[in-house]
Write a structure and sequence with these properties.
Elements (H helix, E strand, L loop, with lengths): L4 H9 L7 E4 L18 E4 L3 E4 L22 E7 L2 H9 L5 E5 L2 E3 L4 E2 L14 H7 L3 E4 L11 E2 L14 E3 L3 E4 L8 E5 L5 H6 L8
Parallel strand pairs: 1-2, 1-5, 5-8, 6-9, 8-10
Antiparallel strand pairs: 2-3, 3-4, 6-7, 10-11, 11-12
Length: 211
C-alpha cells in the first residue's frame, strides 16, 4: 500500500538532526513541520523571510499575516524572527542551511531535478528553487512515484526544464525511498512502502537504481 503524503513527510522528517537549519519547499514538504520527531530541535526557514516556522495553525489560531513561501498560514514559535528577502537568500546562498526538502515533477537517476515549470503552462517564476539546490548542503525530494497518467517521475533523464543538475541526495516517493552516499554514486533502494514488491517498483520506475 503506497505511503500517504503525511507518511512521506514523516519519513523525510526522520532525516532531521538536532540543531539543523532546514528549508521546506511548497507542497508535500510543508507537512514535515508537523512530523518533527520528539527531542529533535530544528529551525525551519522560509525564503519569504521567516526563520523559525511553526506547524500549521488550528482554526482558532490562524493569523493571515503569518505565511510560508507557499502563502499558507503557519504559526510562530518562541524565538521566531523575520528578515528581509535579501538576508533570507543570503542564508541560502551562503551555505548556512543544512538541509532542504523539496517537491519535484521529475528526478533523474543522476540527481537532476525539475520542479519549476511545464512548457506551455504559465508560471509565476522559479521562486527560490534554483538557489536552494545550489546553496544547500543536502537535498531531499518528496514526490509521487508516477504522474496522474502513469508516467514515471523517477527517470533516466528529466524531460522538463532543469532546476538543478546532480543535486538530489535522497528521494522519497509514495512507493519507496532511494538514497546515494555521494553525488558521484548511483541511487540505491533503501526502503519500500508496505506491500510494494521490487518487480512492480521496477515496472513503474524508468531510472536505474541499485538494490
Amino acid at each position: 500500500m503506497p505511503w500517504t503524503r503525511n507518511e512521506m513527510a514523516g519519513r523525510a522528517a526522520r532525516e532531521l538532526e538536532d540543531g539543523f537549519y532546514v528549508n521546506l519547499g511548497i507542497g508535500i514538504p510543508t507537512l514535515v513541520a508537523d512530523n518533527i520527531p520528539d527531542g529533535i530541535n530544528v529551525t525551519l526557514q522560509s525564503e519569504n523571510g521567516m526563520l523559525g516556522l511553526g506547524p500549521y495553525p488550528r482554526e482558532d489560531d490562524v493569523d493571515a499575516d503569518i505565511i510560508n513561501a507557499g502563502k499558507e498560514t503557519i504559526t510562530e514559535l518562541v524565538g521566531t524572527s523575520y528578515v528581509s528577502s535579501a538576508d533570507s537568500f543570503g542564508m541560502i546562498r551562503g551555505g548556512h542551511m543544512n538541509l532542504s526538502i523539496l517537491g519535484a515533477m521529475e528526478v533523474a537517476e543522476n540527481g537532476d531535478i525539475a520542479n519549476w515549470m511545464i512548457p506551455g503552462k504559465m508560471v509565476k517564476g522559479m521562486g527560490g528553487a534554483m538557489d536552494l539546490v545550489a546553496g544547500v548542503r543536502r537535498i531531499i525530494v518528496l514526490m509521487d512515484h508516477v504522474s496522474r497518467d502513469g508516467t514515471a517521475k523517477f527517470r533516466r533523464t528529466c524531460s522538463l526544464p532543469l532546476t538543478g543538475s546532480n543535486v538530489v541526495d535522497m528521494l522519497v516517493t509514495d512507493q519507496a525511498v532511494f538514497e546515494r552516499p555521494d553525488r558521484g554514486s548511483p541511487f540505491r533502494l533503501k526502503e519500500m512502502a508496505p506491500g510494494v514488491c521490487l518487480e512492480k517498483l521496477r515496472e513503474i520506475t524508468e531510472a536505474e537504481f541499485l538494490v
